[in-house]
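pinging the channel bc i need a second pair of eyes. not urgent but kinda urgent?? the chain im working w is below, pasted from the shared doc
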Amino acid sequence: MVDALSLEEILAAAALGVGLLAIVVGALAARRWGTRRRRLMFDCTATALIAEGKLEGFAKGELKVTYRGEEIKDPYLVRLVIKNVGPSDVGSAHFDGARPLTVRLRCSFFGVIEQPESASLDFHSNNGAIVTFEPALLRRQEEWAVEAIVGGLRLESDYAGRPAALLAELDCPLIDTDVTNRAAERVRNAKEVPMP
C-alpha cells in the first residue's frame, strides 16, 4: 500500500515541476526573442569564359573575349555573394562606425553585369578591385550579389597544382555578426592533400 505523501514531498515535487517548466519556457523564449547573433555567408566564385583545356588545333589563340574592343586575358565571370543566413535582419546600425563591407580581388575588372544599389566598385590598376557594400538593410534570407567580367584572376592551386579556388579578401566590420567565408574555406580545402 502506498503511504500518503507528506506536505513537504508534495511541495518539492511541485517545485521540481515548476523549475522544469521554467527551463523549457526560458529556452523557447530565448530562441524566439533572445539576442542570438546575426549570421552572414560570403562566397566568391569564378567561372572561366574560355576553358583552356578545351581549345585544340587551329582554335587555340583564335578564340578570345573582348570587352568594348579590348581583349581580356584569362577572362572570368566572378560572382560575389553576401547572404543573410541568420535569424534576424542586418541593419545599417550593425555596421561598426558606419564602415562598409569590402571585398578585395587582385585582378582587372572590365564590366559589371549585376550589382545591388548598396554596392560600388573601385578599380586600382596595380591593386585590383575593391567591391564596397555600404551600410544598408539586408533582410533575413536576402542576398547582395555582384557579377563582373574580370581578367588576370589569381586562383589558388590545389595540392596537384590545378586552379581550385578564388582568393578574395573580405573585411567585415559588423557588430555581433558571424560570417561564414566559403571562398576562404575552398582555399583552405584546396591546399589539403586528400587521404587515400
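so The first helix runs from residue 7 to 33. and The two ends are 67 Å apart (CA to CA). — does that match what u expected or am i reading it wrong
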